[in-house]
Amino acid sequence: MESPFKADALKGKVALITGGGSGIGFEISTQFGKHGASIAIMGRRKQVLDSAVSALQSLGIPAIGIEGDVRKQEDAKRVVELTFQYFGRLDILVNAAAGNFLAPAEDLSPNGFRTVLDIDSVGTFTMCYEALKYLKKGGPGRSSSGGGTILNISATLHYTASWYQVHVSAAKAAVDATMRNLALEWGTDYDIRVNGIAPGPIGDTPGMSKLAPKEIESSVREFMPLFKLGDKWDIAMAALFLSSDAGKFINGAIIVVDGGLWLSRPRH
Length: 268
Ligand code: HXC
Description:
Layout: E1 14-18, H1 23-34, E2 38-43, H2 46-58, E3 63-67, H3 73-87, E4 92-95, H4 110-135, E5 149-153, H5 166-190, E6 193-199, H6 206-211, H7 214-223, H8 232-243, E7 254-257
Parallel strand pairs: 1-2, 1-4, 2-3, 4-5, 5-6, 6-7
Bound molecules: hexanoyl-coenzyme A.
Residues 98-101, 103, 108-109, 111-112, 115-116, 155, 157, 168, 206-207, 210-211 line the site of hexanoyl-coenzyme A.
């Protein structure tokens, strides 16, 4: 689908996208690149990174892939530094890396709970922490007036409660709380905007194939207000809006992109 945004919306910007080699992260990488940004993607699997980078480069997008696990602070630090060394600046950090599986709470070991918090919540904070130096106004490669921006890919499942997702609900609640606190502290001190996107069910993603097999997918469509799954493109367009100058006064906000699903109820 054609983008409604101008092709130079992110011209000259450098974006680092964790989990940028697949799913929603890859679509954000692609759309940011198509709108003028240079792209660094971080992920754990070399093969996934290599094919994602080739796909971006074949579209004429300057792109590199850097292996790393957001759970390891040394990886986060190295990836952020390499991105800066390669492109000479860092403007946008997108935290799209996430871990998930369905497990009833009684069958979920504390280590399983901790693993998802480590990836989603601690991983997001660690990336923000390591990127701060480059994102803050006056940081390396930046002017004294303009800071960069951070975008977290969250969820809606912790707005209410979700079956077999206690670990992810807790993790994404922490991601959202972290986002608001950083928006306050770093927005005030460093001119960095920090926001979130909460996707609903998005077709053709690792999340959907893990969490909602085809049967569930079709039953979801029956009670969704817009009667359909979202596209990765829908998330990427919201990301583009928030990360570009169109979102320059938006800080500490979450855009829910779920077709109205989380607030929907059966008619009777
Ligand atoms: C119960 C499980 C489990 C399962 C893992 N564990 N899978 N418990 N049911 N299906 C437990 C393990 O038993 C172990 O605890 C602990 O979790 C760590 O497991 P490991 O396999 O050692 O972890 P690791 O290899 O680091 O893998 C992390 C992972 C994996 C999260 C488990 O799925 C992963 O790497 N995922 C990344 C990709 C991904 O999930 N993408 C989808 C994101 S979608 P014990 O006690 O046995 O040691 C998404 C959407 C969210 O995030 C919003 C939804 C609406």
